[in-house]
Amino acid sequence: MIIATRELRYTAEDGCSIPVPVNLSVPEEAELGWKCHYTIGWPDGVEAHTVPGIDAIQALYLGLQALGTAIYLSGYHPSGRLCFDEPGYGYGFPVLTIARDMLIGDDSTFCG
Q1: Which of 27, 43, 47, 55 is the most core-located residue (most Cβ within 10 A)?
Q2: Which of 60, 72, 75 is closest to 98 using CA atoms?
Q3: What pLDDT score does 110 carry?
Q4: Taken in order 30, 27, 84, 97, is the CA torsion positive or negative?
Q5: Pairwise CA distance, residues 72 & 28, whole Å
């Protein structure tokens, strides 16, 4: 069950604005702990991952971080044409430590 959604926008080279839906699901019990599923609807296809955690809170937190990291490590971020609200302001997701040097705009203030 999806518990949170956000729509990013990608501006293609021809100027066309393409929605990039982001969905986060409610954590579920797994065989060993918990898991949290997320999807990103990129223009070239859907990226889907499941992140494990010791409990529901950790699975949710790590799911959000993995989601944010996937956005920053995508091929769409470096183009500067991917945005949430305004270009250059960030996407509003936390990231794993390995991606903190990539943060832009408000993301660098709140997560950096």
Answers
A1: 27
A2: 72
A3: 73
A4: negative
A5: 26
Predicted pLDDT of residue 111 = 62
The answer to whether residues 65 and 53 touch, using CB atoms and an 8 Å cutoff, is no
Q: Which amino acid is at 4?
A: A
For residue 102, give Cα distances in angstroms to 9, 11, 19, 93, 109: 19, 20, 22, 13, 12
> Structure tokens of 34?
């918990």
pLDDT, residue 88, reads: 85
pTM of the model: 0.92
Mean pLDDT per 10-residue section of the chain, whose length is 112 residues: 97 96 97 96 97 97 97 95 91 91 88 56
